[in-house]
Amino acid sequence: MFTVTEELISAVAPNAAAIANAKKISQKGGFVKLLRSDDGTFFMGECQGSGKSNYTTTVDAINPDQPVFSCSCPSRQFPCKHGLALLTEIAAGKAFESCEVPETIVEKRQKREVREEKKKSNEPPKVNKAALAKKMKKQLEGLDLAEQCLRDMLNAGFGAISGNSLATYNDLAKQLGDYYLPGPQLLIKRIILELEAIKENSEQETQRQVQMVRYCIQLHSVIKKVRQFFGQKLQDGDIEPEESTLYESIGTIWNAAQLKQLGLYKENSEQVQLAFAIYYDDARDEYVDVGYWVELSSGTISRTLNYRPLRALKRVKQDDSTFGVIQAKELYCYPGDLNKRIRWEEFQTRDLNSADIEAIAAYAHSDIAAAAKLVKNQIKNTLSDHYAAVLLRFAQVAKAAESYVLVDEKGQRLLLQDMGGPIADRTTALLEDVPNAAVLQDGIMFGVLYYDLQQKRMAMQPYSIITKQQIIRLLY
Amino acid sequence: MSIAALYELQERLYHTAIAGVNMINEDFRLQRSIEQFEQAAGASPVFKKIAEQLKPLREPQTSDKTTALMDALALIDAVLYTQGATEVSGELEPVALKGSGSNYNETRYSELYGLKAALTEKGSGRYELVKDAFEAKSPALSDFRLRSVLIAALGDSYSEMADLVAEILASGDSGIVPLLKQHFDAKGKREMARRVEIIEKLAKEQENEFYLSLLEKSSSVVRLAAVHALKHDEANAELLMGLAETEKGEIREAAYSSLHHLKQLDRGTRAFWLKHAEHSPSEVATYLFDDTGDDLSDTIAGKLRVLLDALASDPKLSEKSAKQYRELNSFLYMSTNKASTELIKLFADIAPQAKSLTKVKVQPTTSYGYYGQEANSDLLREINLLITHGIVLNYNERLVEAGSYLYETCGLPYLHAGFCAALVSKPAAEVYEQFAPFLSDKHTAEIIVTALSFVSYDEEQRAHYLYASSFDGAVNWWQTHTGKRLHEQLDPRWLPLLISDEIRSISKYKLLSRQRNRIVSNFTKDDARERYDVMLMSIMNTNHEETVALLKEHFTQGANECYSEIPVIALHRLGVTEFKEWVVGLFLQPSYPHYYLQYLCKRLKLTSEQTIAVLENLIELAKEKKLKDRYFTVERLEETVERIRTDENAYW
């Protein structure tokens, strides 16, 4: 049964303006005819357009989770406002006349089925070993190049890097793309960006130089470990990818089939979003939509990462905050540490209820020291993020001098402060703005636990507070 | 070996990386650090491992010191991360919440971030975004995450944005008051004044002490806001009277305004107002406008009698003396809503001097601003208008009687007031029979027709209403102006009489033309005809079949002649829905400005399809080179059509 909710409309709409326009069409009675098949899987509407003839819009909901739209209007937006308006009509329970499913739709469904069957088949995707080996060797060559660049920078010192050298490093960074090394490419770009920033404004020179050294350490680690790893694989003739974070560090782009083949997937996973943010990554030239999620059955905290290149912003849909429960038919997990990257394709949604909130709360760490230890185990690894998102139970959030402090049930304390970094939003100060004082008592804090390099201590930036009734987001 | 030594070593190694590994042999501090570390390496296996990593850095024969440096730093960093402490020292205190009454709403990033960016960044479109959210009553605006951002936006450099934010905060919860008082700078500028205004709206007299504290040592704008805020506590009356006596300019004005708001009835306050009415009429006229007290009415009558006696012998006197002119106008204005015996007697007494008093020019007082005023009003005419205004406002019921009395006693000098009084108090047929004959004389026809232009038919209420000024053609005029319902609907016999050639040509209706109304059309080739048609549009009963039929015929003729937009707009009100020919016809008029076209289409509520039909018609004409408009070329028209097809609300 095809049920249309606001969530579904928001999920399929390319942007908020399209939803608004769709609602206007529906409110103004733009549809002169509404038809649906008897089995409720196919819907058609004839909508008044701005031309002489009306537009014909269809929604094929044979797969209710992934409706397929089509419209005769000239708009390039997909789905267009007419398609969304038709969904609005369905949601509003308007009267539809009966019709047959058109032959063209039946044919399209058949073709889609064939494609799905191919996807679902247990045959593993064919792997061209020779091509893979060639790629790996190319990557190793690229690592040599990257290493030379690194050596040059470190031998001469950052102060000695001139405009000409910067241009050379920029070229090299571009070249690394040809060697299938987007990861190291990104690290070199980050180093270059810091150098350029210093040249423009020397105010934070020392901090930036320290950051550059960290990137260098990371780059060195990538080169060393991947060289060893790939070298061994080539030697052993074991060319095929495996579950290893080293692939993430060189910037491998995984497809769903590969992740599935590695067993990095799960069926029927229920995910609840705990926080959401968007930031711009200069080095990538991309916007990154990051969502933090908790799996209801396991308490695993993961991230969705949606990359939107600047040059293709109009063509890639922006993610948004989600407040219900996502039921992912197949959840794909990337290799990673505490907060693995996840993604899904087919999904349904349902409302979040109090039992869900209770379940989430049960997964929270009740001991700051234990949570910190878990995170330290990750961050000591050079190639891992230097922070991890966790759920922490607290007895109270208080203040000690001018600092915010989370206090667990054992009386242990943890400093709360903004981390800085890619998500620049300041959330800690919002603790003084929460709707009522009870929010800061006996609750669960969700946020990123990290090592503060200036103060040389652990701290946490709060992203959300989970009370008995709701998840209160300090972020988005 | 303490962890501090490891931190120091880390720092030295970072310094080496920054300065360049080539310099390592000359870095004696580093060499010494490494030496010391090696000596204490036995302290733990980890320190031993670090020491091993450091060795190559000391050895001159090491060819690849960069690798050694990076390996050492990776290990040291990893060790130090695991040493990161979590404890926080110091005495714990509860977090003091800023204010109360905020909410948490499940607002999506797309909306919340958009609002935040609009409130904190520069650029176009941000005002509209915030305004749309406010008008849509978006719950995001009361979200606690936006509170501080909204308060900071009170100082936005774009003052319209800052004022909008003030409106948003003032419509919210009073729990925000403590935040507004936080970091309050009494010597601040408009931003701080807005804070006071918001506090006043939310907390009213509860923050009286705060307002009083701002009367001293604060900036002028803040002080002004504080004086306005004093209007909620009766205990401030004496203080306000004192400020009105001693202060000047805006503060004095604010004191009057606040005192007026208190509506004190005690003797002291009454004496204050009477004294100021007599000696500073121009300053207090606005505040005493709605006062119906006979004591004030008699005071005004006394002062007016003196002024009018002087004017009777020298009608140009008020033009010679600015002070007298000001006083005359202020007293006239103040006399609205007053109907004491003394005042009405005064008006009756001056009627015989009507001819000379028409030479006394006064500033129009009965208006809603510039529009609705009568240009070049004279004294007697103005008295008629202010009586009408008082009838409409209905603060003083005696004015209907007064209007009737003055007409019955004095005749034509008070025809306008008498006619208006009759409209609201007598049966429609009686009014028609008594006053319709005046249409046969060109002088009295002017007065009657102009008075009728003050009448408008309310389609929702299905009734005629009398207004204080001439209908200006605006859509839903009656929703924004105060009107008094006529005793009965206007007799339908008026309309066939008014559209008859005989009555239309009996006068040039210059008095009607003097009514300053808002621009009712953007294009006309005949002002006088248009004003007359606006009057007809105003009184037409769109629920009366015969009237509708009659006026459809009348306005269709005007529309076909394309002399003005008014007949087309009138036909829209009469239920006509097809306008293409007339819109195109108007546009083809030689002096029709191209940028009025969209306005007209919107005014007639054309659908996007209808608008496109008009534009397509114009495209055809343009292709045939029959369109002389330089702006609307074929390409531009086609582009406009496309734009409307993509977004029916597109501006063009």
Which word captures the global form of chain A?
globular
How much of the sequence lies in strands of chain A comes to 25-35%
Q: In percent terms, what proportion of residues of chain B is strand? A: under 5%
Structural class determined from secondary elements of chain B: mainly alpha
The count of DSSP E runs of length 2 or more, i.e. the number of strands of chain B, is 4
Main sheet summary of chain B? 3 strands, antiparallel
How many individual helices of chain A? 12
Strand order of the largest sheet of chain B: 2-3-4
* Contiguous uncertain segments of 5+ residues of chain A: none
Overall average residue pLDDT of chain B: 89
The secondary-structure class of chain A comes to alpha+beta
Radius of gyration of chain B: 38 Å
Helix content percent band of chain B: 55-70%
Could you name the ranges of chain B where pLDDT drops below 50 across 5 or more consecutive residues?
none
Please provide the count of β strands of chain A. 17
InterPro entries (chain A): Znf_SWIM (IPR007527)
GO molecular function (chain A): zinc ion binding
Protein name (chain A): SWIM-type domain-containing protein
Domain SWIM-type (chain A): 55-91
